[in-house]
Description:
Layout: E1 2-6, E2 10-14, H1 19-28, E3 37-43, E4 57-59, H2 60-71, H3 75-86, H4 93-99, E5 106-109, H5 115-127, H6 132-137, H7 140-150, E6 154-156, E7 159-163, E8 188-193, E9 199-204, H8 208-218, E10 227-233, H9 250-263, H10 268-281, H11 286-294, E11 299-302, H12 308-318, H13 334-345, E12 348-352, E13 355-359, E14 385-392, E15 394-399, E16 402-407, H14 409-412, H15 416-425, H16 444-449, E17 450-460, E18 463-472, H17 478-494, H18 496-500, E19 505-507, E20 510-515, E21 526-527, H19 528-531
Amino acid sequence: MRIKVLNNRQNFFKFPMTDAELNLEMRRLGIKETVPMCKIVDVLEDNNLMNLLKGEIVNMDEVNFLARRLGSLSAYERNVLSIYTDSNCIATMKDLINLTYSTQGLSLITDFSEPEQVGKRLYMDEMLAMSEEEEKHVNFIRFAEKTFKENLPEVMPYGVFVEHGFQLQEVYNGKTFPEYFYSDVIVAAIEVQNSAGDTEYLYLPTDICSMNKVKARLGVLDYWELKVTDIHNMKLPDILVPVPEDVKEISQLTLFNEMCQAVSRFDEVQMKQLAMVVEFTGHASFTEVTSLAKNLGEFEVNPFVHNHEEYGKFWVKESGLFDVDELLLPHIDYASFAADKIAGTLVASGYVGEGFVGATRPLAEYQQYEGEFADPLELDYDCFEDFCLFSSLIANLMIEGDDAGNLYGSDLTQYKEVITEAIEKEECVGEEVRGLMHYFDKSREVAAKVLSAQPKVTEINGELYGVLKCKISEPLTEEDINVLKEYWAGQMSDGWGEGFEQRSIDVDEGEIYVSFWNSGNHWSVMTEEELMGGQAQGMDLRY
């Protein structure tokens, strides 16, 4: 559904969206609160339940949850609920959400030409399900007659509306959301409670936006204040499902969440393969499973063979790689063939309960990852210091469609504010915490030290510079800095910067296209000390 909301400016939003998407859109409206509140100005769909709240200031998280619930209903169910709200006192977000759980006992009949179909419609709406046996033996015409006799049908311009056994359930208490698996990429749900016993759910893979919203609804500041009461598994093989005690700390949850992210797009075949690889390697920690999942294609996994004889037959007769005369098949030593093939192509191999697993490189290499690339779910910014990289800026000025030449650092200082606004609009979902480090995969050592990297601009000695402002947990070595420089240069030339320089920025004279990178011989990425010739320590750089 599309809803126009109002804060400082109006905008249409399409719901439902992820918590991170909602968080980003709200920030673009100037709303930074964890629980965003907005005024509903308009709803595009005429029969949408949200029309009842036009002109009201509402909790946008509730709007998003209601949109998810409505998305799970059929067009018929949404139409029935819309008609019900037209003639009943349903005017709060809490009641609207609860109404989506209360479709039982509401019917809209628009066609009476086939009495048996009318009865089936009424029966399904009252019972919510019907077995094959019921369909054969229920007299649906009599059921329809009985339903109309015992209830008071309401004749409306668009049909006959019937309430038969309807009750408004209170599934949503107006504070914490009920469990609802709204996406097919959800791997598991962590059930958490505060000290008062209020319950909420974290749907993994998740992010810091969802974590903050759950904590806000439960009235806590930190994850350690919550008790993990259950883990509801949706996709994981049993061997990979932790117990609540395994995710009681935020560091544990962060690594489990990363593991869920790594497998969120796996189908049943890949999940089975991963379980076999985990059983074979014995690597079952969150980081080890993440490493195995990301490199699953390196393993040979065959659930159809359980010994060398079967393995050899599979490769000779079924793989399609060999064209062997049928007369020779009885004379092949399949077990020996399997042993030779394994020795020649695999570093490690073995049979588990479900079949064969082989590795193309030493298993110990899959134990080296320690979660350095995981996006944090909770932060303490006091643990980090600033570190910046600088580069010169260049821009192209366009006036009424004509090229008016290039602008350089000293020319661009007057545009600092509008360039900053344009950079902020470039932020994407997933970058809330780590910025461009969200995409960084070059070095585990650098990833462990650099929490975030955000593009910005700053004025130094009358010139505007491009900046990569980083939050670091410990000093970077020279090698670390070179890795970060190379990454930032690549982002400016082919990644983030390539997209940014293609978007116009309106200025009084016309439009400017700002580039953080250029191919000139004198362009480079510099540390603060390199930029200022060793005289910049302690400078107050304003971003």
